[in-house]
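ugh ok fine here u go
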Amino acid sequence: LHLSLRRQRQMCIRDRYNNRIVACIRPHITFNTPAGAKRGMYVAKFDVRLLKNGQKAVPPKMISSSGLKAFDTAVEKAILMCNPFPKPPVGDIPSSITLTFDPVDDANGR
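structure:
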């Protein structure tokens, strides 16, 4: 039980950190969501390698395309504009983080 609570706390901290990063990136995404698009229909996933200071070690790498080239490009540019990435609430900046973006979520989050 104790291990489960520790794992839940770590997941909560990781989720909060991920939300802080997305909050840094999302305002820079310039894209008009297609009419009729539903959540989960177009999802772009990027891997970002980071230095200890939060700067990007290399450009973000797309793991999977949303199927919308313009959205994928907008997300990549927005990731580059969030520099450096914010520090996590506890611990060190991770060397790598995977980020997922959906144009429907991004349109609602602006």
